[in-house]
Amino acid sequence: MPQRAPLQLSHDEMQALGAQALKLVIHHFETNRENPVAVTLPRAQTERMLRTALPEQATPVRELVDILARDVFPNALKSDHPRFYAFVPSPTNFVSVIGDLLISGHNLFAGHWMAASAAGQIEINVIDWLNELVGFPKEGGGILVSGGSMANLSAIAAARESRLGGPNEKAIVYCSDQTHSSMAKGLRILGFRPGQKRTIATDHGLRLSIPALEAAIAEDRAAGRLPFCVVANGGTTNTGAVDPLGPLADVCAREKLWLHVDGAYGAAAVITERGRAALAGMERADSITLDPHKWLFQPYELGCLLVRDASVLQQAFRVEDEDHADYLEDVTRHVQHDVNFYECGVQLTRSFKALKLWLSMRAFGLGEFRRAIESGFEMADHAERTLRAAGTWEVVTPSQMGVVTFRWRDATKTDAQIDAITRETVDLMREDGYALVMSTALNGRAVLRLCPINPATNTGEIEETIARLGRFSAAVGADV
Ligand SMILES: Cc1ncc(COP(=O)(O)O)c(C=O)c1O
Hints:
This protein is of the alpha/beta class.
């Protein structure tokens, strides 16, 4: 018998393992709703359950998959659960999950054209679809990345290179007080000092205030600083608020500033009528972050940076001449019109992430995605109606982009006591396990927040969640 090469499975072993794994995933899809939405174990317990020594010896893989099924997958926050209303949920779809299997099963290197020309064509195609959806011109381009944090960082790197030719200690970026923290992180990584990020106040709707922005720009120019980029929100994570994108585009045009729209969460809603109206003006941006792993129902990780002018990415990320990797010379020698994605972003080695989005968009058609996003809008509307009808809640921000925020109403309590009730209600809801609801802070006060964008969510679940929240808040309120 010839010895088997290392790390190889026989046909039958592959079939058996594949069947076991597929069964597990299908079971997850079919029973997700019946399982607890959120389980977090203490570290001591996970150590006991899962810590093992460096494995010199083999373990039958069937047993390992059983461990995953029993001890790992159930003990998590299920962001694809129909009653996961916290943060930004990530409901997926089975076609894209199989897409992920095909991606890693074939392991195409999607860093340059020579390695994966047809895959590259699919990525170009997917980027073009997204550009068409957001209303960017034909010259637009983009790159698929891990998520919104990487897309935001890459956007600022491109903006800085394009507008300033590189780092400049006088450069100023404007964000609102609702901008996602990934922007501050990206700026720090790119070498911006804290004073180079201006936080602009928001108006009563938690949208970036144009007068405050204009005043800050004028002040910075007068002080000899270099305003160069405005970051707008295409749906804030906190409340779903969309900054005034049209007026912001006017300011940026007048002041010759780069406009980046962080639509990591919200930009995909542009495929619906309601989203398109809310995001009007986004098409005038220079760059947009849009995460398919948020509101385009893709499994992690899939973020995307779109740019109005494709050439800015190469300008920012292409390593020229003497710094170019010698061993990549054969790759670039003949490339003219083709795209080397490693020259358009941070990563050299990158997976064929486009596959899952391409596969699911083609398999379902855009109409199905549109219906899925509309369902999120409707569930948030239903939550708002239910909260108002209950009479015990103050709706702090109305349903917008699938998010609603609210606060327990009790005239006998102080604001600080209501804050305490809000936080305890979150804890009780988490212990209860029916749904996952988290709080956030708005204008210094704690509020509850629902983001019911999973298309499998139904109105009965929204009502039951709000009823339970009410019972918990009332019970906590009796003791505060
Ligand atoms: C508006 C916004 N921007 C950026 C991010 C960061 O995205 P990621 O977690 O994919 O890095 C998020 C995450 O929720 C977000 O909601």
